[in-house]
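Now for today's protein:

——
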Amino acid sequence: MNLNEYITEKRNAVDAFFHSYFTVQRKPPVLQQAMLYSLFAGGKRIRPILALASYEACGGNPAEIVPYASTLELIHTYSLIHDDLPVMDNDDLRRGKPTSHKMFGEAIAILAGDALLTEAFSMLSDPSLSGNLKEANVLRAVREIALASGLNGMVAGQVQDILSENLEPDHETLEFIHRHKTAALIRASVMMGPILYGSGRDVLDALSGYGDNIGLAFQVIDDILDVDGNAEELGKPIGSDERAKKLTYPCLYGVEKSRGIAGELISSAVSSLSSFSSNADPLREIANYLLKRRS
């Protein structure tokens, strides 16, 4: 398969849904402008694509769940807007463009993030978008995403990340941060597919293992890119983790050992798919793509 074509096709499907969904301009206009500014700032749509690919791996038609998969990008985008704020990571650039608070001010940026998060759950609970999906499966998917996004997932990781600045490196704390701040939503993205499809326990367990491993690997690679990445490719300055005294894998293990850890995680992720047919090839290819990414 051609992974670039696959990613482009699925990204275009997600973007087309967003364009149709946000056709009506809500008031006050600046709120939706701020939401769409960050939503269309150049994201790869990896989380929605993982949901679509996992649904396909289970035997489903990915087109059936595009609205649900798209909600993952709203949640991810909200988290980036808030991460970039002066009270958080204080970043001026995101994907080579001024961050939301630099364009719209801090108050509007915060509220745009709030609106994106809330709208995600409005979409997830909208029966007009469900097609032929079973309500019980949709409800299970909503809970999975909610758990991964808040107190038990991403927000908990973000808080621990802040609390751990300037502290001595500690493996247990580092893994907690990465598994919650980044891996939780990536795993939930993968799990959306089998949950909506109504897959059995064996499939759910296999894809959970895949999602756990690529989710952690994704953040390890992010840590590495902040040390030896290219600022132009990343769309933001490198070295921000070190300047903020963040707890990262390179900080604890060094860059080369961190690369090895990421490689082992990706290998384990692919191994989790051993019982799947060629329908899971996009998931296999995405795992290897994440390992080699430069942005």
